[in-house]
Amino acid sequence: MLNQIDEILGVLGSNMKTNMEFGDMRRLAMNYSSARKNVSTYQMSGSAIRSSGMYLIEMPKEEIQKTHDMIVNFGS
């Protein structure tokens, strides 16, 4: 399992940005692996735009607030 985590984090490393240290990400993955059995999913909806040659998804403020509220109220 450890090799899989290293591979996943290696792929993510070149495609995402975070302020978490690698060791923190590894501990998070290892210590909360059992949580994957209790997963909820939600897909945000936005509008596709092109800016500076990149394709982006622009999220309405209402969608951001709805998602924020879902996270804050999760489990309560």
Key phrases:
single chain; 76 residues; alpha+beta; two-stranded antiparallel ribbon; 3 helices; 45% helix
Query: Order of strands across the biggest sheet?
Result: 1-2
**With helices defined by DSSP (H or I, 4 residues minimum), what is the helix count?**
3
Mean pLDDT: 82
Measured between the Cα atoms of the first and last residue, the distance is: 32 Å
Explain how this protein is built.
The protein has 76 residues and is of the alpha+beta class. It contains three helices and two strands. Strands 1-2 form a two-stranded antiparallel ribbon. The chain is flat and about 35 Å long. 0% of the residues are buried.
Brief description of this entry?
The chain is an alpha+beta fold and 76 residues long. The protein has three helices and two strands, in the order ααββα.
Please give the structural blueprint:
Layout (H helix, E strand, L loop, with lengths): L1 H12 L8 H10 L15 E5 L2 E5 L2 H12 L4
Antiparallel strand pairs: 1-2
Helix pairs in contact: 1-2
